[in-house]
Amino acid sequence: IENQNDVALQELLQEFHYADIAEILDEVDLEQAIYVIKLLDSETTSEILMEVDEDVREKILKQLSAKEIAEEIGELDTDDAADILAELSEERQEQVISQIEDLEHKAEIQELLAYDEDTAGGLMAKELVRVYEDWTVEQCITEIRTQAEDVKRVHSIYVVNNQDQLIGRLSLKDLVTAKSKQKITEIYISNVDSVYVNEDSEDVAKVMAKYDLEAIPVIDHNKILLGRITIDDIVDVIREEADKDYQMAAGISQDVEADDSILKLTKARLPWLLIGMFGGLGAASIIEQFNGSMGDFIVLLSFVPLIQATAGNVGVQSSAIMVQGLANGTIDGNILNQLFKEFLLGLVNGVAIACIALLVTHFVFGTPYIVSITIGIALISVIVMAALIGTFIPIFLDKRGIDPAVATGPFITTSNDVFGILIYFLIAKCILGF
Amino acid sequence: IENQNDVALQELLQEFHYADIAEILDEVDLEQAIYVIKLLDSETTSEILMEVDEDVREKILKQLSAKEIAEEIGELDTDDAADILAELSEERQEQVISQIEDLEHKAEIQELLAYDEDTAGGLMAKELVRVYEDWTVEQCITEIRTQAEDVKRVHSIYVVNNQDQLIGRLSLKDLVTAKSKQKITEIYISNVDSVYVNEDSEDVAKVMAKYDLEAIPVIDHNKILLGRITIDDIVDVIREEADKDYQMAAGISQDVEADDSILKLTKARLPWLLIGMFGGLGAASIIEQFNGSMGDFIVLLSFVPLIQATAGNVGVQSSAIMVQGLANGTIDGNILNQLFKEFLLGLVNGVAIACIALLVTHFVFGTPYIVSITIGIALISVIVMAALIGTFIPIFLDKRGIDPAVATGPFITTSNDVFGILIYFLIAKCILGF
User: Fold this and answer.
1) Hey, of B83, B269, B383, B411, which one would you mutate to test binding to chain A, going by the most A CBs within 10 A of its CB?
2) What is the ipTM of this complex?
3) Nearest C-alpha in A relative to B255
4) Three-state SS across B173-205?
5) Looking at domain B6-116, which of 3.40.30.10, 1.25.60.10, 2.60.40.420, 3.40.50.150 is its CATH number?
6) Model confidence pLDDT, tens digit, residues A265-275
7) Cβ of A298 and B309 within 8 Å?
């Protein structure tokens, strides 16, 4: 399709949604992508740019002049514009900003750039519909017609007083169904949820999900209405957060995708493998310690993988439940209660696993009773320990203000491996007396 | 607060949002919860019921008569009403349905109950605003005023022809800014995204996230408009899906929370521990096989945990990336390409890990060069193998129509443990010739 016919291509692409064109651009090579971008008008291409992969966008923006980028950005909502600018180098940012023609748009984008991207300020857009409490419904509708030109989707209409402080909201539905001479003061809903501009974006997501909101106004500490956050941005926050936790649990430390380069994937994965490796070497040195004196009980070494796998699995289960519980806020305060519960749970699971293992080792592997019993007792102890470590570490990290998700996956598996093997041999030494 | 003053409590609770009251009810005991439910009017309590924990709701509903439940349900949107009914036994369902007074509401709920809960039909609500293409804007606004009484939030107005087939949409904004004598045909947008009623709910979530939609109409295969799905339901789908995948990866097979009972938690966790246990016993029997003939190379046993931990970690990393890639659709078609890439990645990571392990074992543990080299080669092989298994199994399951998320966590760790240890001893046997 690419090489020749401009007009035909243009017509063809106009039929597509920008999200679909973005998918096509992710696939074709850079030259073709830029060719397409230059062909289409900036209203479409700005939306396409928002949707393409971050890597692709970075490459495309490199090929465009500051003026061209400024044009694209001029078409975007302030929040998207600020997001794109934040990806550029500081020098480039200034060049682009100086080229933006609409002065109001420019000032708003500069304001948004100042906020941390993980806060409400980093998510919000300046585009919103605001009405003053002393207007009439009729006045309001006229004003909304003007303001709505800038706002893609009108969710709520925010009501402010003369100091621009947020005092309530007005749903479009109420407005449509009200009589035209009524005053806003009579029909607005004073009960309005809002978030502060420096609130963490995950907390904003929680509030919006809890109250089923589709947009939420952002205010500063003087209650001045600054902007609004819409649910589609929150959907992205939730997805990213879930992806991040999932990858952490799997031992992947950066946000990577299956189609990233081998170098990038290695950078994300190798550190965790190294942790696991040093854990394995630690376990080896523990085994070495006991090895010499073990004598007849060398058969114990065969069951090291069993101990290790069990410790790892229990640890991951316990920590995953804690991480989710902390994220959703379903953990009822008391740490000791939670640890006691995990202790009981570990005991129940441990006894079940130990009984089966005892029977299998004795009757299938033919190990002496005393060795099988040793393995069983070690399994119970290791499971209880792994459950307690898996529960304690996330709570501990959370109290310290560290994201507990780092505690799942290889981190917990490795520490449980090493502790598990140590406990196993210590118990064996006590019981079998080598 | 509970025991005495009805009026004071009623007044106090009226100040709260229903989501906050639901949180309180999750905490207090059942008797108190039911007392609160009976105290408040059904408009509030129906919303509270939607927000409380599933377990709590089940218990509360058991204490209410069919007539009381029918009243609660009468206040809810059809989608929420159907969700609550779906949780009751069939007999109870019929009793409650027969008590619903509003016949239209009743018919709609019955229709929704017929759809599978994991499809678009299971998510949609019947409440929507529909206008016919031959109406005028003025007629439209009058009609919307009536229809909007049933609809909590008006997202889009759907335009249908006289056969009730969906032909387009009308945004409230366009309607407010249009002239009152214009015909709908002139101002509606014919480009409207929609989903079929039997489409999978995860696919609906993907479509809505991709196109940043806040509501999507649901149609049948004759394009008849059946209902609409709003983004707040999709937020729940995304969250549940992420939670499910996360728990699967951690080896938890049911949807459990930290505050569930020990029995429920054991049911969710024990099966995976059993898989891990049998894997461990499998590994033990492999070690037993080689144990007798190993002679001087008994030191190899010390490094079993190293091999096992590495195999497990690599497997989980690879499978997690595949599971996410498959979920987000970022995997570019070709399985062979993906396997080849993981092969290269495994080689790079493997060589890095093997070199470090070689140096540490030789200089710290003092193992002979030939043993250290054996361990190094085994590590590379095991890492490559684990990466390939971790990549292949999710793709394989996905092609078979099984959720690839089951392939992460204990499942992949256990199989990699066993294969890894087998490969380790086979390589050692070849090189060291015991």
Assistant:
1) B269
2) 0.74
3) A321
4) HHHHHCCCCCEHHHHCECCCCCEECCCEHHHHH
5) 1.25.60.10
6) 888 888 888 88
7) no
